[in-house]
């Protein structure tokens, strides 16, 4: 049979524990009464603590961190902007390259004839052989004609080579006019720019690089003193009226004036409407002021490209300069072109040819 404690022993057990706890407390410690000890469970240990105060050092540290972050963000934005600019340049270059390739492909497609235009006629084998045989016969006939022509040319060349060469060189030197030209720059002729009209300037094509001499397509008035005549190699002045004064290599008794302009059949644009039409010729005396009228003429573009006009210099008078005054052209609204001007006559000494004087203009 087990032993069980009595009720009095159980009631006295808490009192004994309390005395043992009080006896173990160090000396000088505050004594807590039983009433205070009983009030401990009623205390609200979850009361809110007062907010801590923010020190100034923490705020300064926060501001420094923010400034560093802002500087880093600014650097990142600058780097991104530079990358965007480089990417934009690359995109622009790629777009231009794509446009060039597209234009090239379009040009190739335009130049290459489509397959639909090829003949769809289907020939039989016999028809094909017949066509090949006929074309072979035509080629043989053409070869025979070429051989015959070659033999004839060879015989003519062997018999008359020296005479033909002399005739060709003579015609080239005389240029079918057969008169000496004193308006050639190679013999000493030049242009009096002070008395000559200004060059034509096209505002629609006046790009900045045309101001440089090696890009400028406009020709000076000295080009009319050169024998090289081909489309575009001319001196142009504004409008349908203008003048050019040629300083001759000496005093010349003028007898004829020759104008040259390419025919409409070889003109690139608008035919020959920029050619001069009506013009007058004057001889300038030594004082450079007195002008002698030598005639008024019309250059007909429907005739030969080289036309010579006889001057009214009677009695013959020697002039150091000659003036060509253009009165109209063949319909061009903006400019008139002169390709070549030739002055014919007889050159005199410095003191000769002054006895006769013409009518001043």
Automatic annotation (TrEMBL):
Source species, domain of life: Eukaryota
Keywords per UniProt: Coiled coil, Differentiation, Membrane, Nucleus, Spermatogenesis, Transmembrane, Transmembrane helix
Keyword match Nucleus: yes
InterPro entries named in the record: Galactose-bd-like_sf (IPR008979), SUN1-5 (IPR045119), SUN_dom (IPR012919)
GO BP terms, alphabetized: cell differentiation; spermatogenesis
Domain SUN: 188-348
Gene Ontology cellular-component annotations: meiotic nuclear membrane microtubule tethering complex; nuclear inner membrane
Coiled-coil spans in chain: 125-159
Subcellular location: Nucleus inner membrane
GO MF term set: protein-membrane adaptor activity
Region listing for Disordered, in residue ranges: 1-30
Transmembrane feature ranges: 61-81, 87-112
Pfam families associated with the record: Sad1_UNC
Protein name per its UniProtKB record: Sperm-associated antigen 4 protein isoform X2
Source organism of the structure: Puma concolor (Mountain lion)
């Amino acid at each position: 049979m087990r032993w069980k404690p009595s009720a009095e022993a159980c009631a006295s057990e808490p009192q004994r524990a309390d005395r043992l706890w009080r006896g173990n407390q160090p000396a000088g410690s505050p004594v807590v009464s039983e009433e205070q000890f009983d009030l401990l469970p009623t205390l609200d240990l979850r009361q809110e603590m007062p907010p801590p105060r923010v020190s100034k050092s923490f705020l300064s540290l926060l501001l420094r961190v923010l400034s560093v972050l802002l500087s880093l963000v600014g650097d990142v934005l600058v780097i991104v902007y530079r990358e965007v600019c480089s990417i934009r340049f690359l995109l622009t270059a790629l777009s231009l390259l794509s446009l060039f390739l597209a234009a090239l492909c379009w040009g190739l497609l335009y130049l290459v004839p489509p397959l639909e235009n090829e003949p769809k006629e289907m020939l039989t084998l016999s028809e094909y052989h017949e066509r090949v045989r006929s074309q072979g016969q035509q080629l043989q006939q053409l070869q025979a004609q070429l051989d015959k022509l070659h033999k004839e040319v060879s015989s003519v060349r062997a018999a008359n080579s020296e005479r033909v060469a002399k005739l060709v060189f003579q015609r080239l030197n005389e240029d079918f006019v057969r008169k000496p030209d004193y308006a050639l720059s190679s013999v000493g002729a030049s242009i009096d720019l002070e008395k000559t009209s200004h060059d034509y300037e096209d505002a629609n094509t006046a790009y900045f690089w045309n101001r440089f001499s090696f890009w400028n397509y406009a020709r000076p008035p000295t080009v009319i003193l050169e024998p090289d005549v081909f489309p575009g190699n001319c001196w142009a002045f504004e409008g349908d009226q203008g003048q050019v004064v040629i300083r001759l290599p000496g005093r010349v008794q003028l007898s004829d004036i020759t104008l040259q302009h390419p025919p409409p059949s070889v003109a690139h644009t608008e035919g020959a409407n920029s050619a001069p039409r009506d013009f007058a010729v004057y001889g300038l005396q030594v004082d450079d002021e007195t002008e002698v009228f030598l005639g008024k003429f019309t250059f007909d573009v429907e005739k030969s490209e080289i036309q010579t006009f006889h001057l009214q210099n009677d009695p013959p008078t020697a002039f150091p300069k000659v003036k060509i005054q253009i009165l109209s052209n063949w319909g061009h609204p903006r400019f008139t072109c002169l390709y070549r001007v030739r002055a014919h006559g007889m050159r005199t000494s410095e003191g000769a040819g002054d006895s006769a004087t013409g009518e001043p203009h």
